[in-house]
Write a structure and sequence with these properties.
With about 475 residues, the chain is an alpha+beta fold. Among the domains are: about 140 residues, no CATH class; about 110 residues, no CATH class; about 70 residues, no CATH class. Helix 7 crosses helix 9, helix 10 packs parallel to helix 12 and helix 11 crosses helix 13. The longest helix has about 35 residues. The N and C termini lie far apart (about 130 Å).
Length: about 475
């Protein structure tokens, strides 16, 4: 009984304070923080509490954002720390609101001015319920007048052929593409799980289960499984990489061909690489040579030589001009070297003086040093980079460098020249010529004599 009387006094005082606040805030233009409402059992948030007109045992909590109140039992509220906000004046205005289009619109404008954005939209919409042709409310809601009708953004998007996909309006074509990509991703993940289980059985199952798992793997023919196979087997032991090549060789389509080419380019062991190449050659897929020729454009010397070796094995005579362009390649690297003696120049592998680079920082223990790399210049842009270079082991004896030394080591751009042996071997095999690494002679022969597809000799019919 005492608790009920105390609660009644609390709510009477609360309503009396609210009435006073409404009177004081009738012309208040700014927005303050809302009441701090503490709930029983912990938790607090900000809002404005008013009695629920439908249930005296409940209250409505209105937020500065949102269109509808939160309804809670009075018993769940432990304490309310009242603070004046525009919501107090809003409810006073709402109680006196006339049921006219202009009154609803004006209250919406007032809400906009006091940053009650969601409530402003409510009153603009109410104005349109009274008069659907009221232009100011349409404009406030962002509606567009089109072909004699006011349309909201959703209706306009629909008229323009847009569709809603995961909360965003996009074209029907884009939605189809996204759904297709999502479906393909789900298929790939399904294959990854299935192939992982088969690999586990192949490695750790009983003898019969191992044989069964290998049979199931070798029976895969779906091109959608290529990515999953590479993901599961591509970085495993030698025997599994060989198994991967045999599985891929039985899957039709360019995806499997590209996967085998990638396997050749990444395979570090020549014996395994030869086995993988045999599977590629048996496919007789012309896209293999195309993929290998593209690999010649990479900067990695090992990749270039592996691609050239495979092109020679495929007897891809059309690749000769491209092979010649990578017969001799160069690579520039940032190196740390001891400072030269007075009057001494540092000479790089091409015979030219290296370009010194100023250091931009050192590690605390002196093990690495950072240098700014030269600019990379493109159309309308210049880009700079940085590189960290180990300082230990850069000098005779393998010791580190004291940061307190009077003469610090220099970082320089050293240019390295590579004579690619596999490229030369491929050129010799495909042309029957041998000019060594003399690029000029190769080019001269290419210009004068190279015919990738010679015309067959015409024979005069015998009488």
């Amino acid at each position: 009984m005492a608790q009920g009387i105390a609660a009644e006094r609390f709510w009477r005082g609360r309503l009396r304070w609210t009435a006073l606040a409404v009177a004081a805030l009738a012309g208040w233009p700014a927005v303050g923080r809302a009441d701090t409402i503490t709930l029983r059992g912990g938790g607090a948030f900000e809002g404005k509490v008013i009695p629920d007109p439908l249930d005296k045992n409940r209250v409505q909590i209105w937020m500065l954002q949102g269109r509808t109140p939160l309804v809670v039992d009075r018993s769940k509220i432990l304490e309310i720390a009242p603070k004046p906000t525009a919501l107090d004046a809003y409810f006073a205005k709402k109680d006196k609101l006339e049921n006219t289009v202009q009154a609803e619109y004006d209250l919406g404008l007032w809400c906009d001015q006091h940053h009650l954005i969601d409530l402003a939209r409510v009153h603009y919409e109410n104005a349109l319920h009274i008069d659907k042709s009221f232009e100011p409310a349409h404009k406030k809601l962002g509606h567009v007048f089109h072909d004699g009708y006011w349309l909201d953004k959703n209706e306009l998007n629909q008229m323009q052929g847009m569709v809603k996909y995961k909360g965003r309006w996009i074209s029907a074509e884009e939605r189809a593409n996204r759904e297709q990509e999502a479906e393909a991703a789900a298929v790939r993940m399904s294959w990854v799980r299935q192939i992982s289980q088969l690999r586990q059985a192949f490695l750790q199952g009983s003898v019969d289960r191992q044989r069964e798992a290998e049979t199931q793997l070798m029976a895969i023919r779906d091109p959608e499984a290529v990515g999953a196979l590479v993901r599961v087997f591509g970085r495993q032991e030698q025997s599994e990489r060989i198994l991967l090549a045999h599985i891929l060789s039985r899957i039709p389509g360019p995806a499997a061909t590209r996967a085998i080419v990638s396997q050749i380019l990444a395979e570090p062991q020549r014996e395994v690489r030869s086995i993988v190449f045999d599977q590629l050659k048996e496919r007789e897929d012309p896209t293999a040579a195309t993929a290998l020729v593209k690999a010649l454009a990479r900067s990695d010397v090992m990749t270039i030589n592996r691609a050239a070796w495979a092109l020679g094995g495929l007897e891809a005579v059309d690749a000769v001009p491209r092979l010649l362009s990578v017969l001799v390649t160069t690579e520039s690297r940032v190196v740390v070297a001891p400072p030269p003696e007075d009057g001494q120049d540092v000479v790089n592998s091409t015979g030219g003086a290296d370009l010194p680079l100023p250091p931009i920082g050192y590690s605390r223990n002196g093990s690495t040093v950072a240098f700014m790399t030269p600019p990379a210049i493109g159309p309308g842009a210049v880009a700079y980079g940085a590189v960290g270079v180990p300082m230990y082991g850069a000098f005779p004896g393998g010791g580190g460098v004291s940061l307190g030394a009077e003469r610090r080591p220099d970082a320089r751009i050293a240019t390295y020249v590579y004579r690619n042996t596999e490229v030369l071997a491929a050129l010799q095999k495909l042309t029957g010529q041998d000019f060594g690494y003399n690029v000029d002679q190769w080019r001269e022969w290419l210009r004068r004599s190279f015919k990738p597809h010679p015309q067959p000799t015409r024979r005069v019919p015998q009488p």
